[in-house]
Design goal:
Blueprint: H1 2-8, H2 10-27, H3 31-44, H4 47-58, H5 60-68, H6 74-89, H7 96-106
Helix pairs in contact: 1-2, 2-3
Length: 107
């Protein structure tokens, strides 16, 4: 199905190729390929992918550091996201003591 879509729509094929390339860059932390990927997106990508790349370019130093450094703030972000979900589940009625008990109980 995807092969047929890619054959019929060159712009979609380019977007899929660029998306796969970006995923590989992030997974394998290949910071050297990132600048080349940004140039390719600027030249031949769809407007949506160019907007995504512009956001990455705006945070270039942070993105580049994430591709170079071995550290991740993923666990911290996960905890923050979980805390926000717990608070939203109480529709703003959760006080600090209730949030503390729920957070400690769930951990």
């Amino acid at each position: 199905m995807i092969l047929r879509l890619k054959a019929q729509h060159a712009e979609l094929a380019a977007a899929i190729e660029l998306a796969h390339e970006f995923a590989a860059i992030v997974r394998q932390q290949q910071s050297g390929r990132f600048d080349h990927w940004l140039m390719c997106v600027a030249q031949r990508a769809s407007p949506a992918l160019r907007r995504f790349a512009k956001g990455l370019r705006d945070a270039y130093d942070a993105v580049k550091a994430s591709l170079i450094l071995p550290w991740s703030n993923g666990p911290v972000e996960g905890r923050i996201n979980r805390l926000k979900m717990l608070k939203r589940s109480r529709y703003g009625r959760a006080g600090l003591d209730l949030l503390t008990r729920r957070l400690l109980w769930a951990a």
